[in-house]
Amino acid sequence: MFAVAILHCKVLKNLELIPAAVKKENLKQALEFWAEFALLTMLIVPLLAKERRVVINGVSYILQFPPTMSDRDVAAYVYKSIPSAIAGLVSKFCWKRKT
Question: How far apart, in whole angstroms, are the C-alpha atoms of residue 97 and residue 99?
Answer without folding.
Answer: 6
